[in-house]
Amino acid sequence: MEVLLKSEITCPNCGYQKLEDMPTNACQFFYECENCKMVLKPNEGDCCVYCSFGTVACPPIQENKSCC
Description:
This protein is an alpha+beta fold and 68 residues long. 13% of the residues lie in helices and 21% in strands. It has a two-stranded antiparallel ribbon with strand order 1-2. A two-stranded antiparallel sheet has the order 3-4.
Protein backbone atom coordinates (compact mmCIF):
# COMPACT_ATOMS: atom_id res chain seq x y z
CA MET A 1 0.00 0.00 0.00
CA GLU A 2 1.28 3.44 -0.91
CA VAL A 3 1.54 5.87 1.98
CA LEU A 4 -0.03 9.25 1.23
CA LEU A 5 1.97 12.24 2.46
CA LYS A 6 -0.53 15.06 1.89
CA SER A 7 -3.66 15.72 3.91
CA GLU A 8 -6.14 18.57 3.85
CA ILE A 9 -6.69 19.92 7.35
CA THR A 10 -10.05 21.55 8.13
CA CYS A 11 -10.19 23.96 11.06
CA PRO A 12 -13.15 23.06 13.29
CA ASN A 13 -13.41 26.69 14.41
CA CYS A 14 -13.71 28.54 11.09
CA GLY A 15 -13.84 25.80 8.44
CA TYR A 16 -10.67 26.97 6.65
CA GLN A 17 -9.01 24.16 4.71
CA LYS A 18 -5.39 23.78 3.66
CA LEU A 19 -3.47 20.98 1.97
CA GLU A 20 -0.38 20.17 4.03
CA ASP A 21 2.62 17.85 3.76
CA MET A 22 2.68 15.43 6.68
CA PRO A 23 5.95 14.73 8.50
CA THR A 24 7.16 11.15 8.19
CA ASN A 25 9.52 11.20 11.18
CA ALA A 26 7.30 12.68 13.92
CA CYS A 27 3.70 13.30 14.93
CA GLN A 28 2.36 16.81 14.64
CA PHE A 29 0.57 17.56 17.89
CA PHE A 30 -0.11 21.28 17.31
CA TYR A 31 -1.30 23.10 14.19
CA GLU A 32 -2.15 26.79 13.89
CA CYS A 33 -4.96 27.68 11.49
CA GLU A 34 -3.74 30.28 8.99
CA ASN A 35 -7.16 31.93 8.90
CA CYS A 36 -8.36 32.28 12.51
CA LYS A 37 -5.05 31.51 14.31
CA MET A 38 -6.69 28.86 16.53
CA VAL A 39 -4.16 26.25 17.68
CA LEU A 40 -5.51 22.77 17.00
CA LYS A 41 -4.63 19.76 19.14
CA PRO A 42 -5.62 16.14 18.43
CA ASN A 43 -8.99 14.91 19.62
CA GLU A 44 -8.93 12.44 22.50
CA GLY A 45 -7.79 9.06 21.21
CA ASP A 46 -6.03 10.47 18.14
CA CYS A 47 -2.25 10.71 17.91
CA CYS A 48 -1.94 13.88 15.83
CA VAL A 49 -3.80 16.74 14.16
CA TYR A 50 -3.88 14.88 10.82
CA CYS A 51 -5.75 11.97 12.38
CA SER A 52 -8.26 14.38 13.95
CA PHE A 53 -8.74 17.08 11.31
CA GLY A 54 -7.15 15.80 8.08
CA THR A 55 -8.55 13.98 5.09
CA VAL A 56 -5.76 11.40 5.40
CA ALA A 57 -4.39 9.80 8.58
CA CYS A 58 -0.70 10.23 9.40
CA PRO A 59 1.87 7.90 7.75
CA PRO A 60 2.39 5.56 10.77
CA ILE A 61 -1.35 5.00 11.12
CA GLN A 62 -1.66 4.37 7.39
CA GLU A 63 1.01 1.65 7.79
CA ASN A 64 -0.85 0.14 10.79
CA LYS A 65 1.99 1.10 13.14
CA SER A 66 1.79 2.95 16.40
CA CYS A 67 2.22 6.68 16.12
CA CYS A 68 4.59 8.52 18.47
